[in-house]
Write a structure and sequence with these properties.
Elements: E1 9-14, E2 26-31, H1 35-40, E3 43-50, E4 60-64, E5 67-71, E6 77-80, E7 84-90, H2 93-108
Length: 109
């Protein structure tokens, strides 16, 4: 990989193999780790996107590639950067702000 993934970029990521109730498959994920970490570590923190709408208060709704879905903040995980296949987009500023606020709320309580 020539460059590091940047925060709020959406990447196609191979999440397999998984265990138990983890979200599986190769799917879009949002990079949530800060760029300072992404530049220096061989892993990054990601939150998978899902088209299954749960409307849970900790999930962030979005439309990506004309598909309504959610950012599954309950499924955040560290992945090795070798799992990243390619960048496929970025979050819009409004969704970035909603995601940031949701993460702060989750980890504050």
């Amino acid at each position: 990989m020539a460059r590091y993934p940047a925060r709020f970029e959406i990447w196609l990521i191979d999440l397999n193999p998984v265990r138990g109730a983890e979200i599986a498959k190769t799917r879009p994920c949002v990079v949530v780790s800060p760029d300072e970490l992404n530049q220096h570590l061989k892993t990054c923190l990601v939150a998978p996107l899902t088209s299954t709408r749960r409307h849970w208060p900790h999930r962030v709704p979005l439309i990506f590639a004309d598909v309504e879905g959610e950012i599954a903040t309950d499924q955040i995980r560290a992945v090795d950067r070798t799992r990243l296949i390619r960048q496929i987009g970025t979050l819009d500023p409004e969704t970035e702000e909603k995601l940031s606020m949701r993460l702060v709320e989750m980890f504050r309580h």
